[in-house]
C-alpha cells in the first residue's frame, strides 16, 4: 500500500483471536502500525477458565494454510497439528469404516484453538509494528470519527479506566457478538440477521488407550459416530487424546439430566466410545451446551473507516470445518485488496472487497448448515459413501476436469460460490453422460434385437 | 392481575412514543406503577426539530382504535383525526378516480404522530400511577437483574448523570433500534434480522388551495399518484393541507440533485400536484431521505423479565398503514394477557403472549412489503381495481361469508395470520365457483347443441 513517508497508516483491530492476530501480521507486513485489543487477559499467561477455550478443535485446510503461509507462520502451526486423512465412521456394533477426504496427499490439520492463538500471539509480539493490548473491552465505536472506546478491565493506579483510540481504520475481528458490527448495524441500510440451528454441542474429553475390548482408535482420522438425529465426533489432539463433541438438539440434550440416563444413552449409542470417556458424567453435567449461531450481514465495511472479518462478518456453524478457514481467507483477501492502493482510496478498496466476498461467505454459511446432514446421516448411508468414493475416483481419472465439491471447498482456494456453481455444472454433465450412455445402450440393444430377428430363418 | 396488597408491580417502559404511552395507560389501569422513560425532551413543550417528527401521517384503523378504546382515549383522538373513505388515484393527465376502502361506514383516520403523542402523554400525566421521565437515554439493560441504566441528558446540579432502575418488568417500546432488544439479542437463541426495501421516502408539504387549473383535492381520501417504480401519496391533515410523501428507490432519488431536475421530474410525473407544493425544491433538498426498515425477532420476551412491543419487536414498512395499529394491538393483547394472572407467572404469561403474537406480526410484515406494489402499480391497473370493487360487492352481498383481505386487516381485529389464511380459502372457493359455473355453462351448451342437432329434420 502506498502512503506518504511521514505517515504510517494506523489500524485498530478489535479482537485478538485467530483472525485478528493473522490480520495484524498481514497488515504489519504492508507497513501499517497495528494496535490489537482484546477484552480478555493473555491466554499464554494463564491456564484460563474452561469457558475461554472454544471446544471444537479447528480443522485447518487449504484456505487457512494459504493465508498462514502468506504471513509466514504456516510451518510453526503445522508442527503442532495432527493430520486427518479422512473420516473414520463408527456404526453401532459394526466395524470401523475409513473414508478418505480426497487424494492421498490431501488432509485436514487438527489443531486446538488455544495452540493456534498462542503461536499467532507470539508472532505478533515479535513484530515491531504490532502492539497487543489485553484487558481492553470495546464499549463504543464512533464510525464517523474512526474512534473506539475501550474500558480497561485491569486499571493501573492513576490510569483512566476509559481509553479512546482514533486511527485510520477500525477492524472488527471481535466474533459473533461483535461490538464493531453492532455500531455498523445502527447505520443506514445495514442488513443483518442472526439465527440458530436446533443443535447445541457438548464437549467431552476422550482418552485413546487400548481397552480389553479394542485397540486404540487411529489418530489420523476425524472420528464420527453418525446417529441421524445426533452425532458424536472426535478430533485428534495427539496419539493419546481426542477432543470429543456431541451435537444434539438442545431440547433432547436437556432430557439427559441424571448420571444414569447419560451413561445409558452413551452405552446404547456409542458402545465403543463410552470406555474412553473417563469423566463422561461430570463433563456432561458441568460443561455448558453452547448454541450454534449463523450471522449474516451486509455490507462488511463502513465506507473507508471500518471493516469486519471472520465471525464478526459471517459466523457459521462448524460442520464443514470452514469457520476459521473462511476467516483466514478474509484476512488474506483483505490484505491483498489493501496492498498497492493509496490509503485515501480505502472506501473503494473496502467496498470492492466486501462486495466480492459477500456471495462466497453466504455460500459457505449455507453449505455448513447442509453439511450437518452429511455428517450425521449420509456418512452412514452406503449409497452416499459410494457416491463420494466414485467422485474421488473420477477426480483421480480427470484431475483437471472433475473436482468434488468437498475437495474444492477444503483443498483449493476456489471462491466458495464458484465451487458450488462448478459442482452443479459437473453434476449436470454427469447426468448427461449417464443418460447418453443409457440411450446408447438401449439403441445398441434395439439394433441387436432387430438384427437377431431379421437373421432368424423364416419358419 | 393479582398481586399482594402490599406490593404494587412496578413496570419500566423504555420509549414514550405511541406504543409506550398506550401500554402505560393500559397497565396503570391494571394497578401497575409505571415509569415511562424517553431519551428526547417533552415534545409538548418545544416545537421540536423537524427530524423528531415522523413524516408519514398515521392511518388509524380498527385494531388501533380497539386498543385506544380500551384505554379510554379513542374519542379524543378521533376528534383530531380526518376520516379517509378510500383512495383517490391521480393518473398522469387523466381524471381522478375514487376507490372506496370498504362499506360506507368503513374508513381510516388520518392523524399526525405528533398529535397522537400529545394526547397520549396528556392522558398519562393525569394517571397517578404513571410517571414520565424525559431526557433519559437508555444506555444499558441487565435482563437477569431487571435493571435499566439511563443517562440523564439534562442533569440538574448535584444529580448523578447515570440512573439505575430496577423493576418487576422491563418493556422495550423504544422503536426500530431498540436498546432493550439489543440486550435480548445477546441472549442465547434470540433470532433477529433487519432488512431494508430499496425505496426511501421524502416528506413534502402540500397546501390544498384552488389553483387556476383545478379545484381543491377532496380531503376525505388518501391520495395516490401511482407511477410504478415510484409513487407520491398525500394524507390529509385537515381541509387545507396534506402531508405528502414521495417513495422512490434511494439510488433514483439521489439522481434528482438540482432544482431544475426536481421541478422537471414533478412537472412530468405529478402535473396536478406540483402547484400545490410551494416549497418543493427546498423541501426536497433539505429533508432527509430515510430508509424503510423491517425488523423481525424471536422471542419477544426474556423469561418474565422483559418484553418488546411495537417497532422494537417488529418494525414494518408503512405501505399497509398497519405499523401503529399493530403496535397498539400488541399493547392491548399484552395487557389482556397480564390481566388476571399472578405476577409470579409472568414468564409463562409473556412466553404465551410472544408465541401467539409472532406469526401474526410476521404476516403483516410480509403484507406491508407486498402492498407497495398494490399502491404504486396495481392501484392504477383497471383489472386490479375491478377485482377490488367486485370484492366489495361480494362483501355487501355475503357480509358474513366473504370478507376482502384489506377489510380483515384494516376493519377487523381478526389476527393477521388468520386473515391471510381465510383470504386464501375464499380465493379457492371463488375459483371453484367460477370453474363450476364454467362447466355448467359448457354442459348446458353441449346439451342444447345436441338437442338442436337431433331435432333438425333429416334431409
Automatic annotation (TrEMBL), chains A, B:
Keyword Cytoplasm annotated: no
Q: Which residues cross the membrane?
A: 434-454
| EC id | 1.14.13.9
Per UniProt, the keywords (alphabetical) are: FAD, Flavoprotein, Membrane, Mitochondrion, Monooxygenase, NADP, Oxidoreductase, Pyridine nucleotide biosynthesis, Transmembrane, Transmembrane helix
Q: Where in the cell is it found?
A: Mitochondrion
Task: Name all FAD-binding domain ranges.
Answer: 11-365
One Pfam family it belongs to: FAD_binding_3
User: Gene3D superfamilies recorded for this chain?
Assistant: FAD/NAD(P)-binding domain
Q: What task does this protein carry out?
A: Catalyzes the hydroxylation of L-kynurenine (L-Kyn) to form 3-hydroxy-L-kynurenine (L-3OHKyn). Required for synthesis of quinolinic acid.
| Name of the protein this chain belongs to | Kynurenine 3-monooxygenase
Organism of this sequence: Gracilariopsis chorda
Query: Which gene codes for it?
Result: KMO
Amino acid at each position: 500500500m502506498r502512503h506518504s513517508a511521514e505517515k504510517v497508516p494506523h489500524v485498530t483491530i478489535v479482537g485478538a483471536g485467530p483472525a485478528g492476530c493473522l490480520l495484524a501480521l498481514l497488515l504489519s507486513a504492508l507497513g501499517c502500525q497495528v494496535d490489537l485489543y482484546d477484552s480478555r487477559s493473555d491466554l499464554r499467561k494463564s491456564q484460563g477458565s474452561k469457558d475461554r477455550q472454544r471446544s471444537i478443535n479447528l480443522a485447518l485446510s487449504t484456505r487457512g494454510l494459504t493465508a498462514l503461509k502468506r504471513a509466514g507462520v504456516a510451518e510453526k502451526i503445522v508442527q503442532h497439528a495432527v493430520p486427518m486423512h479422512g473420516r473414520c465412521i463408527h456404526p453401532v456394533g459394526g466395524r470401523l469404516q475409513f473414508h478418505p477426504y480426497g487424494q492421498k496427499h490431501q488432509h485436514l490439520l487438527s489443531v486446538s484453538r488455544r495452540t493456534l492463538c498462542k503461536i499467532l500471539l507470539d508472532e505478533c509480539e515479535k513484530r515491531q509494528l504490532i502492539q497487543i493490548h489485553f484487558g481492553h473491552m470495546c464499549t463504543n465505536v464512533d464510525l464517523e470519527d474512526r474512534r473506539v472506546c475501550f474500558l480497561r478491565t485491569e486499571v493501573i493506579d492513576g490510569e483512566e479506566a476509559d481509553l479512546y483510540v482514533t486511527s485510520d481504520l477500525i477492524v472488527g475481528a471481535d466474533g459473533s457478538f461483535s461490538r464493531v458490527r453492532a455500531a455498523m448495524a445502527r447505520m443506514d441500510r445495514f442488513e443483518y440477521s442472526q439465527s440458530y440451528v436446533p443443535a447445541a454441542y457438548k464437549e467431552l474429553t476422550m482418552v485413546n488407550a487400548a481397552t480389553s475390548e479394542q485397540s486404540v482408535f487411529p489418530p489420523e482420522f476425524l472420528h464420527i459416530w453418525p446417529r441421524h438425529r445426533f452425532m458424536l465426533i472426535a478430533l485428534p489432539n495427539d496419539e493419546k487424546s481426542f477432543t470429543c463433541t456431541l451435537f444434539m438438539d438442545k431440547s433432547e440434550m436437556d432430557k439427559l439430566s441424571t448420571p444414569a440416563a447419560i451413561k445409558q444413552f452413551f452405552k446404547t449409542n456409542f458402545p465403543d466410545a463410552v470406555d474412553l470417556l473417563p469423566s463422561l458424567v461430570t463433563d456432561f453435567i458441568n460443561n455448558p451446551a453452547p448454541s450454534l449461531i449463523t450471522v449474516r450481514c451486509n455490507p462488511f465495511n463502513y465506507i473507508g473507516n471500518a471493516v469486519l472479518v471472520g465471525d464478526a462478518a459471517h459466523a457459521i456453524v462448524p460442520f464443514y470445518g470452514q469457520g476459521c478457514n473462511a476467516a483466514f481467507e478474509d484476512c488474506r483477501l483483505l490484505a491483498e485488496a489493501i496492498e498497492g492502493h493509496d490509503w485515501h482510496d480505502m472506501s473503494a478498496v473496502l467496498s470492492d472487497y466486501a462486495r466480492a466476498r459477500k456471495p462466497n461467505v453466504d455460500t459457505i454459511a449455507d453449505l455448513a448448515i447442509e453439511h450437518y446432514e452429511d455428517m450425521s446421516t449420509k456418512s452412514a448411508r452406503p449409497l452416499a459413501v459410494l457416491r463420494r468414493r466414485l467422485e474421488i475416483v473420477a477426480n483421480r481419472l480427470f484431475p483437471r476436469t472433475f473436482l468434488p465439491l468437498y475437495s474444492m471447498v477444503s483443498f483449493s482456494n476456489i471462491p466458495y460460490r464458484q465451487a458450488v456453481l462448478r459442482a452443479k455444472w459437473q453434476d449436470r454433465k454427469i447426468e448427461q453422460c449417464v443418460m447418453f450412455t443409457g440411450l446408447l445402450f438401449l439403441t445398441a440393444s434395439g439394433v441387436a434385437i432387430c438384427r437377431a430377428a431379421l437373421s432368424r430363418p423364416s419358419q
